[in-house]
Design brief:
The protein has 303 residues and is mainly α. Helix content is 64%, strand content 0%. The chain starts with 35 loop residues before the first helix and ends with a helix.
Amino acid sequence: MARSLTPARPAAPARPATASGRRPRPSAGRQHHAGPLTYVLLAVAAIVSLFPLYWNVVAASHTGERVVEAPAPLLPGTRLLDNLTFAWNQVDMGEALVNTTVVASLVALSTVLFSTLAGFAFARLPFRGKGMLLSLVVATMTIPPQLSVIPLYRIITDLGWFDQLQSVVLPSLVAAFGVFFMRQFLVEALPVELVEAARMDGAHSLRIIWHVVFPVARPAMAVLGMLVFVQAWNDFFWPFIALTPDGNPTLQVALAGLGAGNHAVNQAVVLTGALISTVPLLLVFALLGKHIVGGITAGAVKS
């Protein structure tokens, strides 16, 4: 019999295997759209998260007696402007806002700067005792801040810094958490070859930090700055000891003396002050939220 001259079909190319030895699934790379249940859960989570802020506004618009009654009010009242005016004038809330903005901004900037420099040194600079020194820095996070209150208070009183803003700023110029956070980020995001290439091109350490380290560390710096700013804004323990409500108070110190009367504390006025202290943080997140999220996502993408 004559053989068929039809050429055999070439075999289909095999799909490349992944690093684990498994072939990729046909659905890999496809975009999965969220279903209705996902949006329902997200809506419920958003409502639960926003309810405390909503009730703060509701409580600030009622009298102190109505706030502590049961059941608690769930609809806004008519005394919001009166409570805002009373809270603003009772403890000079304007000065407290300015002081808190200055303190939180200085603490955030200094912590981000020094933590980035120290994190780069621990991540990519060789020196003796680096591991032991890093362990000591991390170990300081286990020390309760209450243990350092008495010596720190004696230091600021000897320097004449009591009731001055520098007594709150200087002890918080750098944080062990920030150093460890930046070190862990730079170990993964900053290749050793990049630093060595910059040195071979004749760049000194300051130029490497400015042109190489800071651009690479920008996402982590944004996240760390946001966290430190919020922490410094809401800090109460040490500012309450170092500052007075009648001198240079921060917002948390001013709130401690808000709403006090002859017999009882007006809870509506206190919640009004808390609402005033929350609005600037909401504005910061509304204005810079896209940049912060963009920095986080940019740092999460690897080539």
